[in-house]
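Here is one chain, start to finish.
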Amino acid sequence: MESPGPLPALTDDLLEEVFVRIGSPADLIRASTACVAFRRLIADPSFLRRYRSLHPPLLLGLLSAYGDPLEVTEAPHPSAALAGAVARAADFDFRAYKPSGLGGSYVCDVRDGRVLMCFPEDDDGEEIFCQLAVCDPLARRRLLMPPLPDDLLASVQAQKRDLLYLGAFLVPSGDDEDANFFRVIACTTFTEMVVAFIFSSDTGHWSAGPSMSCDARTLSIPHDDPPSYAYGCFYWKVDIENKLFKLDTSSMEFSFVDLPPGHDKSRVVIVEAGEGRLGMFSEISDFTSLYYATIRKIGAQRFDQLIMDRVIPLPADYYFRILGSYEGHIFMIGYCWTDDTCFALEVKTLKIERVCRRFRGGAVYPYFGFPASISEGRI
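Its structure:
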């Protein structure tokens, strides 16, 4: 009998086909630590984009605005076991990320495995305007962003003492070539103007973004309501008004959008409903169900072509409040006599799952597993 010939070498193309079939981001990270060649393949931006398109990130838990440790998903949620393992391996003690000389901090956004933190004062209690940091709990890294420079404020005819801070948020990475690249937008108002400033990890600097003349009384946005994001646009529900405030990141323009009648006193979130359509979820006055509508498009100043609407009943014995929308899910707190519980509604299937117990007040940000943190260097 002839002796068997040598086994064919595993080429990079074959290895990629193996890695892309690994269903768990945690297992993918473990594979990347086996050798330098595996890590190089898995950390490649083109591979990560392909992997994310096939394996949506897993919900691992919730972070509060107060920077409490991760409240992990609880059984019977399908990611409960993995969430516990990730929480033990990562660093969700946000006190470790606080730079010396700064006082209190809070979480203001969570996207793509990154946590955006704000430090509003120094150790002496003096107010600091827009001092931000981006943290990666899985990689245990932090990038402290520079403050807004005076010459940039002068370019929009503003001074720090005149600015009212509306909030900062991370721009979803989407199909960016560099998995380490990120942008942060900080929105402010002064006198009768709203203006956005944009930080890019590529340059390490702030730049002036879009602005719009606007009466500050008109732009009444609750500070604990994070914006919705869909198809490149951010949306805020204007308090006690039947309208949304919109930022289009493609055209870099602000605008107001009128809602269909009847949503002025409700919390409203906008989502991607598939096939280019938008979805709108709104609280119903009895707080035991949700109104859901899909929209063909949003016109220049109003919703056009409302093509379907329905009422979605929520789990019995709870009164619900919408928290926000992330990664194709609507997050809600259910209040009852025995406990307060967080639920997630998947937009695609309208399936509702219990996530975990509620922690102490404030805004709540879902934390999804995201393999971008395996790459080296910058956050």
